[in-house]
Amino acid sequence: MSDIPGKQRRAGLSGRAGGGMMDPNNQIASKLRALYSAVEQEPIPDMFLDLLEKLDKAEQRGKSRR
């Protein structure tokens, strides 16, 4: 174990090589952002939209019974 506290150790790691694209953390973050963006652009499946519509109708029926 090192005598350097965890936060300082992590700060030292992120400061290496200027934190550029060669930094594995930056590479992972960049790929995760790209993946999230791609998923975000995908259309919502019709089956899921149908389920949401059924849920809305069931909630409206439940409110009208009260």
Describe this structure in a few short sentences.
With 66 residues, the chain is mainly alpha-helical.
Question: What does this molecule look like?
Answer:
- The protein has 66 residues and is mainly α.
- The chain is 70% helix and 0% strand.
- How many helices? The count is 3
Head-to-tail CA distance between termini: 63 Å
**What spatial form do the alpha-carbon principal axes imply?**
elongated
- Proportion in β-strands: under 5%
The structural class is: mainly alpha
Helical percentage: 55-70%
- Spatial extent as radius of gyration: 24 Å
Average pLDDT works out at 81
H/E series, N to C?
HHH
Major β-sheet profile: none
Q: Name the poorly predicted regions.
A: 13-17
Counting DSSP E segments of at least 2 residues, the number of strands comes to 0
Write the layout of secondary structure elements.
Blueprint lengths: L5 H9 L9 H18 L4 H19 L2
Highlighted features:
66 residues; mainly alpha; single chain; 70% helix; 0% strand; elongated
